[in-house]
Prior knowledge:
Layout: H1 2-12, H2 22-26, H3 40-65, E1 69-71, H4 80-83, H5 92-111, H6 119-140, E2 143-144, E3 159-160, H7 162-181, E4 193-195, E5 200-202, H8 221-239, H9 246-255, E6 266-268, H10 282-287, E7 300-302, H11 304-307, E8 379-382, H12 384-396, H13 406-421, H14 431-434, H15 447-456, H16 474-488, H17 494-504, H18 540-545
Helix pairs in contact: 3-5, 3-6, 3-17, 5-6, 6-7, 6-8, 7-8, 8-9, 8-12, 12-13, 12-16, 13-16, 16-17
Amino acid sequence: MKRIKFLNMILLGGALLATTSCNKYLDVNDNPNNPVDVSPDLILPAALAQTAANNVTFNSYGAWAGGYQANAGGYGGFGSVLTYNYATSDNNGLWSSTYSNLNSYQTIINKTDATGPYKNYNAIAKIMKAFCYLRLIDVYNDVPYTDALKGVENLTPKYDKAEDIYVALFGELNAAIASLAIANNSQTTISTATSANSQRIDIITSGQSGGGEWEANGFPTAKWTAFANTLKLKMLVRIREVGSLSSTFNTEKAKLASAAFVTYDVKAQPGYASGQDGKQNPSFNAYAYTYTGGSAQLTTIPTFFAVGFYDGHKLEDDVRGLGLYDPVVTYRNYTTANQLGVVDADVPGSATGGQFFTGNSNGAASAGYGTIKGAQMAQPLMLAAESYFIQAEAKLFGIISSGLTEDELFARGIRASQRYLLTDQNEALQPDYAAEPDAAEGNGAGQESYDYYVEQNAGASKPYLVDLGVATTTAQKLEAIVTQKWIAVNYIHSNEGWSDYRRTGYPVTSPGGNEYNNFASVQSVSTRQDKLPVRVLYPASEYALNAQNVPAGINPFTSRVFYDLN
């Protein structure tokens, strides 16, 4: 990280050198303040940090569209956020930030080989390229891939079908896994931080684990391989019913027959710091407090639909919601909520620091538990909970033959979600939770808390949403798995919950239901039965600069992502 800071000083702090030679002054062919070539070890940390920062943009999009957040009282001007009548000027950051990020990963791929001293950089760049493209496809479906990321060589890339990009991304991930399987040599100088206590992998080296020095066990090949496998499994779950990809599905399914998957929270930790411009955790900075200590977001509050999974309207959850532990997690106040689109005078306002931050209210120095833990928290890219729910769905439909049943994987997903929310920014467990006998073991530990959650909901209208063992049909099991994943990614990766809803129709929302059972905006102009959109439009820049290639006739209510078969 010191090298990165030094490079930034070079890039940002250049000064003109005084000289008496005009010819020498005008010779700009070798400018030390503007390097034309940067090594992969300097590009990768910055690229990973950008992926982490982009999570805010994707989460916010998913939170608005997917039923997690609503407009707070006292504010207006929400426009298409409430109507879903998206324009080409809406959500442009999803596109621009991702392609900027992808360019960095492609540069690393171009500069490295699948073997030799930079093989791990090459593998990580391919894994993260796939990660970014999957997020992009979830939003836009067809996007530039084959002709993209070529710089000035092709400024108007053609669009590839999303199905074809999936096939290509399987290839990228397979290549990365093969590269990781090659033994490291003494010149393979890359490290990532790990923490056995939290079962996490920090994909950016942080000061918590030696500040860039090698870990005692070397490069965590197994964990990166598990991450790549989990991304592949996520893709297989997405394409299970896509007929045009049946051959790819069967081929890639066979490759995962004995694969290991993520059992830890995959996080980025470049050394976030509180009270410093550009150095705070991006989610804390966007949703809680800015580096100057001001409240970052006052315009949003939770939806009644989401709160209903904690406060008893649909489920009771004293572990991740109300009462069992102090302080509560997930929401600051469970009575402060709204249905998207309601703008009357009774709509409550947001608290200082926002409703999604439950820690103490001391500005940039605030800290707590929950989805947003503090300015120094690592930024999750994939939760262990998400991985377990992906595995549970895959097991349900015979995609994997894990020794664990779908019921066991489902329970581990809930336990991993509880564990994540009850961990602070320094990876310390909440004391009462830590006192549970198995809480420190990882793998979604905390059996007592899970058992309590099951007991709480034994009399619920849908007890199988908490206890898969009482589900009587495959449909009920799928509903439970996807609904619990939706809860687990609440305001962490809301985009994932939104993508799963479009794919499966879960969690169930009823356009004629009350605010606890319908998350569609009351101002929706959607033509769909559920009154929701299915996508956003391509950005205006594409229609201006790549008009000959950008797909025409895109409609936010009918132009579905390829795996959305509803």
